[in-house]
């Protein structure tokens, strides 16, 4: 998942949230300056949210709920927002589908997928991003990534399959300690019955994934979608013909990669060599 874009954008959801917030603030007899001071932000920032020009940051909604005694209404309005802070514009539609998927398949050859990353690994990626991110942007993206990872534990009936290239671990992104923690984290995740990780060895004469990374998901209505991401863009694919081709490639890669058991053995071997 790539970086988020920081430009202000407006939507019906944002305007609705801003209007609800303003209504509860006035109901409580509070000024923008007073509420901003109580919830820990500037009055200018609060005004931007009320005008539907800014997304509420992590924790903001809960603090406003407590300060205004809003009966959960602000949380409900926030859940309708079309964007999650820390997610790139082009990723948001896929992220919404992902939250309801009954099956999610991921092949990655560039970096460890976001759902499997540790905070240290993710932070390394954000810190090394170009153009450089501010500290606030890094924290926002880290929060979004960790929030997204709750899918793995909160949806035990969803099947997760990951095919990862062996060189992603051999690169040792972030250093030895980060890589050790990453391997341990993945070894813990594969103990869940619904999570499978397969390693594609460095040496493999036949490889069906040479066109690049891919993601596939199945909705509760048994409709399949695919997603492909480039440097600064992403493409949601709904064309059944294209999705079928990607399913075929993914199925072939599952046969070409190491089995789940052999993948675990290789991860343990790599861990011992670090």
Tell me about this structure.
By secondary structure, this protein is α/β, with parallel strands linked by helices. Helix content is 47%, strand content 12%. It is built from 13 helices and 6 strands. Strands 3-2-1-4-5-6 form a 6-stranded mixed sheet, sandwiched between helices. Helix 2 packs across helix 3. The protein is elongated. The N terminus is likely disordered.
Q: Structural class of the secondary structure composition?
A: alpha/beta
Radius of gyration: 21 Å
**Poorly predicted parts:** 1-10
Enumerate how many helices there are, as a single number: 13
Q: What is the mean pLDDT? A: 90
Write down the overall geometry: elongated
**Oligomeric state as shown:** single chain
**Strand line-up across the major sheet:** 3-2-1-4-5-6
What labels would you give this structure?
single chain; 274 residues; 47% helix; alpha/beta; disordered N terminus; six-stranded mixed beta sheet
Short description:
With 274 residues, the protein is α/β, with parallel strands linked by helices. It has helices spanning 12-27, 32-39, 43-50, 60-68, 73-78, 92-98, 119-127, 135-148, 151-154, 167-170, 176-189, 240-256, 260-273, and strands at 103-108, 159-165, 195-200, 214-218, 224-229, 234-237.
Topology summary:
Layout: H1 12-27, H2 32-39, H3 43-50, H4 60-68, H5 73-78, H6 92-98, E1 103-108, H7 119-127, H8 135-148, H9 151-154, E2 159-165, H10 167-170, H11 176-189, E3 195-200, E4 214-218, E5 224-229, E6 234-237, H12 240-256, H13 260-273
Parallel strand pairs: 1-2, 2-3
Antiparallel strand pairs: 1-4, 4-5, 5-6
């Amino acid at each position: 998942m790539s970086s988020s874009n920081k430009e202000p954008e407006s939507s019906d959801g944002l305007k609705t949230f801003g209007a609800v917030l303003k209504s509860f603030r006035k109901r409580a007899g509070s000024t923008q300056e007073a509420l901003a001071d109580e919830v820990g932000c500037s009055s200018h920032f609060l005004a931007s949210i009320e005008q539907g020009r800014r997304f509420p940051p992590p924790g903001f909604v809960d603090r406003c709920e407590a300060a205004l005694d809003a009966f959960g209404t602000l949380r409900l309005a926030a859940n309708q927002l079309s964007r999650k802070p820390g997610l790139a514009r082009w990723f948001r539609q896929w992220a919404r589908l992902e939250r309801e998927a009954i099956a999610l398949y991921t092949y990655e050859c560039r970096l460890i997928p976001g759902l499997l990353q540790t905070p240290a690994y993710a932070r390394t990626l954000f810190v090394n991003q170009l153009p450089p991110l501010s500290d606030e942007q890094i924290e926002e993206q880290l929060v979004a990534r960790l929030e997204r990872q709750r899918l793995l534990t909160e949806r035990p009936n969803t099947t997760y399959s990951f095919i990862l290239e062996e060189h992603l671990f051999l690169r040792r992104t972030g250093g030895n300690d980060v890589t050790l923690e990453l391997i341990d984290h993945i070894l813990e995740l594969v103990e869940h019955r619904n999570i499978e990780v397969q390693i594609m060895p460095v040496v493999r004469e036949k490889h069906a994934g040479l066109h690049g990374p891919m993601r596939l998901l199945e909705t509760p209505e048994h409709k399949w979608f695919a997603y492909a991401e480039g440097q600064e863009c992403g493409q949601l694919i709904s064309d059944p013909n294209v999705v079928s081709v990607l399913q075929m490639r993914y199925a072939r890669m599952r046969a070409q990669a190491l089995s789940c058991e052999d993948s675990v053995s290789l991860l343990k071997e790599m861990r011992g060599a670090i």
